[in-house]
Amino acid sequence: MEPVGDFDLEYAAALESTAPVRLGSQYGLFVEGEMVEPAAGRLAPTVNPATGEALAEVSVADAADVDRAVAAARTAWEGGWRDLPGAERAKYLYRVARLLQERAREFAVLETMDGGKPIRESRDLDIPLAAAHFFHYAGWADKLDYAFSGRRAAPLGVAAQVIPWNFPLLMAAWKLAPALACGNTAVLKPAPTTPLTALLLAEVLRDAELPPGVVNIITGDDAAGAALVAHPGVDKVAFTGSTEVGRAIAAEMAGTGKRLTLELGGKAANIVFDDAALDQVTEGIVNGIYFNGGQVCCAGSRLLVQETVADTVVGKLQRRMDTLRVGDPLDKNTDIGAINSQAQLDRITELVASGVAEGAELYTPDCVLPERGFFHAPALFTNVSTAHRIAQEEIFGPVLSVLTFRTAEEAVAKANNTPYGLSAGIWTEKGSRILWMADQMQAGVVWANTFNRFDPASPFGGYRESGYGREGGRAGLLPYVELVA
Amino acid sequence: MSDRLVVNKTYKQFIGGAFERSESGRSYPVAGVGGELLANAVQGSRKDVRDAVAAARSAQGGWAGRTAYNRGQILYRVAEVMESRRDEFSAEVARAGDGCSDEAAAQETTAAIDRWVWYAGWADKFATVLGGANPVAGPYFNLSVPEPVGVVGIVGFGEPPLLPLVSRLAPVIVSGNTAVVLASERCPLVAITLAETLALSDVPSGVVNIITGHRDELVPPLAGHVAVDSLDLTGCEPDMAADASRQAAATITRVVSASAAERQWADESAQSPYLIDAFCETKTVWHPKGR
Asked: Which domains does chain A have, with CATH numbers?
């Protein structure tokens, strides 16, 4: 930002201290309540995407390790967890929630170091919401008889849970809390690039005195994840990640009779009508697409703006983008942190290049990116057609595509013109239009005059190729129970 | 019986509200208990399946757009019309496949009629039971509602031919889904008689479409169709269900199959609001509260 008069309005860096984090140099697998060496002894580095430097080495599980973890989960299930009174399961989960709250700062800093997201987000959203999830589902554990009319909820057994890198601890909480509350045991596999908060969670689970084997955490590459979901000893698979991998898992599990839930990709429309409060809208759009650098499955990556206000909205957006601070994710002023990995940065860069090549017009603020690490400036495309790749494919980065519409019907048609159906945004001051539009959206979550809100009591999950099953609230119990008459 | 010759019924497929032969021109013989010819059923083709899916797709918005009260009345009307034709249904059940006693056939018909009544009553209640307000930690209105998933492909259970069909169809359409049903291959006739009942019961054209013919020919085009949003594979043998599920995976199509308890067709365990839910999506809407 330019100095104004004699005053330099540039912020000084406000770095969060890394002191609470005690990194190990090597990490094992969490199996049967212990940190154990991987069978083949393979290790791989996990990298801080803001520096490109390795933080630690973590184990790469192989098929033998998966066997061992699944066996531990099975033993724990049959050996007591499935028969434990709900009130006792609840108390374990409450302990986990409290321990997470107590160590929240440590988790937030570690999450930011390992994943690259701004500390403001890991501190204010990821970690508190993860704790809240355990707290919410703790309360369900002894109330399952009240959740489903006329049916008893029985646990399924061993749940295999594979989670992504964009909200590492939060996704672990979304998976583990309902599974455990319903009386299942679990084998959790964090993403290859973000294993560290899951491994720190293992410490919390041990401190909570959770019986050994109820939760097992195995780190590793995609092959380890594939071995886990294909393992004959698991009764349920829950996966959050790309639609491409979701398809492969669904095909792999065809005919096995195992239960499956998928939370996959998205290409959400954020729809702005001409009567909306445009300053609020601007903040909402920015939050919708630049939150976590757009590495969010429900990101509002397609802006549909009514033609009459399109120029105004784009102008406001560009001015707001000029003030976004891209840089060190540990800086409390940072709005957009690091992209999670070089591979993801390459994908974003490639899709942005395709937008330019296909004739869309790129706007990006004049910001200086750090010299090392993986960063991408916020980007906005105008002159986008619905056929462009940037309007069709999930970019998973800070890239917004702007399209226009004239009538509500046209907005609906364009919003639903995608195989995905995870989320949608609606901005208008007219209540009846909000409710009509919400009805028309083929999306599991509809945010009206807000965007990217999450809560443990609120079901989250997609229509169509965004997957099936819900996480959060009572609906989030269903994937982990069998309803018995 | 006098010397009057009986007028036999031609059993056609039910697509988009019309009774039609297959575009392929084919038929296959359906045998009764003693091996006698009951009728020549239509041997549907992949093109018939595609036509049925198209009819279901175009009817879905309108059906879901009806009020829940209206859908409930229409399902109840199906029960009324079935009741008035119960002797015909019972006779068809008794002579289909391996057959059964007149008494058992009458029970099967009664249970099927009562199942329509049970689901009719859910039309304006399941959203209350399955959805609701979520108390989120912030100044937001937050509501979850179940919505129909869209077009559902149902592979009908073999025998008995009536009650399982009704038990799987009613929970699919009560929420606003439309359906493409593959009738029992061996006992398809009663499904067509049910279609005639639906046509007389104010069920809009295209809401239920029924194809008869060979499973191995009809399941793949149904399971692989991109416009089919969910599949009920209750009537599939394991190998066929696995193949269909693999096809469904390509478009992340939801696959459902009846549990053992749900296959106790005459029991209350075969009916549940969670069966309605199995063919719904949960939509959650947020809005800020403020002055």
From this structure: 26-264+464-484 (3.40.605.10), 269-448 (3.40.309.10)
